[in-house]
Inverse folding.
């Protein structure tokens, strides 16, 4: 059984008062950072190899370095806490159990990019998380860790927790910025990129919760310490979220490059009496994998080489009792509902994918419909305004690739083979 875990962000989650500033500590990493040159802080994050933990995997230090200096404009940090991807459930428990890691990371990041205002954009439905964040920010202000002259360094920082209205599209960074400004959340045309013209048309860094919360440990323990974990190009640790048909679902913090087989060993395996059928390496917007991919290293390069994406490391596990067509339909219904409607490929394409998949799942389709949904997906992929459309095509293409026979079985028997009224096992037909 593997014991490869690196409890850093999750180290104190089991403590009853883990969310309080007294349990967290005195922000030693932030004190250290504010005694450094801001460019040295950026260089340390570059040297660590930290890549964005929100899905895209863009080098964090490089993103910070894009902010122009001496431009006479205010700079902003915006933390993307609008966790909405189906299957993704790492940022919410992180903010609940360890919010001060995020607040300390915000102080360090804001200092590095010369920002005096920072925002945390939180998904509006998670009211308990919003309250927890507000409490943590109040504690930090009371200690003098936020506000004027932080740590007697001459650096000022105001931090605002902002509640979103529950739109998946606002997880896209420019749609988030529009929403934060009070407009309808829709993606912006790029360029200009947020680093040049972001919030209020000023240079802005947008980073994921886990990315920012990882910064204090990098500054506190050193870039080499962080870079010593993970793989050659995917450095450090990350939170892997196991959900679905697994014995012990939950958050497993481990170095990038660990395999699902190792994680399943630690999680007690697939639920008793069953076996894995398919799984997502990074949430529903990443192409699905099967049991043949159990030993693929979970890093950006290895997962990409096998035709999927590491994404948010949301490992949704499905056993042999699950209908692939039904699962893909449910995901597609989500994307059709959450499409902002700005671009035609996504607005129209996700709607028609949903309609055809409904017919297929009901056993009323034909083999030609498989060509239809892949053609629709091809016309969305790379043609939509943002990545929502691309994400919606991932389960379509990958499910047809790996489970074409299951699609065919639906209209062979005139319904879902997993429907008890039709059959509990294909072999009974």
């Amino acid at each position: 059984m593997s014991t490869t875990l690196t409890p850093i962000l999750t180290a104190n989650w089991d403590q009853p008062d883990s969310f309080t500033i007294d349990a967290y500590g005195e922000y030693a990493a932030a004190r250290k950072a504010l005694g450094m040159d801001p460019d040295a802080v950026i260089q340390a994050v570059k040297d660590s190899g930290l890549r964005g933990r929100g899905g895209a995997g863009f080098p964090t230090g490089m993103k910070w370095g894009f902010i122009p200096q001496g431009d006479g404009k205010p700079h902003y940090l915006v933390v993307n806490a609008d966790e909405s991807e189906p299957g993704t459930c790492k940022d919410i428990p992180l903010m609940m159990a360890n919010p001060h890691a995020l607040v300390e990371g915000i102080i360090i990041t804001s200092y590095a990019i010369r920002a005096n205002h920072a925002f945390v954009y939180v998904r509006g439905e998670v009211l308990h998380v919003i309250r927890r964040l507000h409490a943590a920010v109040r504690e930090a202000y009371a200690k003098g860790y936020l506000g004027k002259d932080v740590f007697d360094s001459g650096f000022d920082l105001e931090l605002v927790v902002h509640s979103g209205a529950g739109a998946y599209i606002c997880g896209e960074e420019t749609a988030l910025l529009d929403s934060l400004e009070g407009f309808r959340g829709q993606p912006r045309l790029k360029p200009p990129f947020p680093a040049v013209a972001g919030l209020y048309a000023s240079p802005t860094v947008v980073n994921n919760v886990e990315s920012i919360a990882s910064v204090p440990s990098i500054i506190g323990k050193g870039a080499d310490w962080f870079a010593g974990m993970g793989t050659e190009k995917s450095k450090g640790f990350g939170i892997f979220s196991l959900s679905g048909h697994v014995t012990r679902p939950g958050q497993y913090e481990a170095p990038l490059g660990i395999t699902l087989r190792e994680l399943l060993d630690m999680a007690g395996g697939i639920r008793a009496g069953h076996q894995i059928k398919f799984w997502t390496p990074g949430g529903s917007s990443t192409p699905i994998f099967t049991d043949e991919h159990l030993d693929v290293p979970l890093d950006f390069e290895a997962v990409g080489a096998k035709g999927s994406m590491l994404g948010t490391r949301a490992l949704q596990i499905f056993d042999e009792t699950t209908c692939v067509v039904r699962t893909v339909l449910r995901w597609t219904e989500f994307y059709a509902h959450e499409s902002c409607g700005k671009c035609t490929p996504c607005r129209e394409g996700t709607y028609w994918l949903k309609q055809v998949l409904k017919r297929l799942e009901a056993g009323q389709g034909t083999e030609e419909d498989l060509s239809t949904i892949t053609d629709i997906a091809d016309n969305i992929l790379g043609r939509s305004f943002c990545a929502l459309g691309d994400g919606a095509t991932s389960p379509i293409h990958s499910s047809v690739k790996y489970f074409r026979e299951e699609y065919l079985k639906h209209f062979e028997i005139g319904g879902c083979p997993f429907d008890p009224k039709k059959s509990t096992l294909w072999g009974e037909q």
Q: What stands out?
A: The mean pLDDT is 94. The domain at 21-222 is CATH 3.40.50.11540 (Rossmann fold). The first strand starts at residue 76 and ends at 81. The chain has three domains: 21-222, 237-319, 324-428.
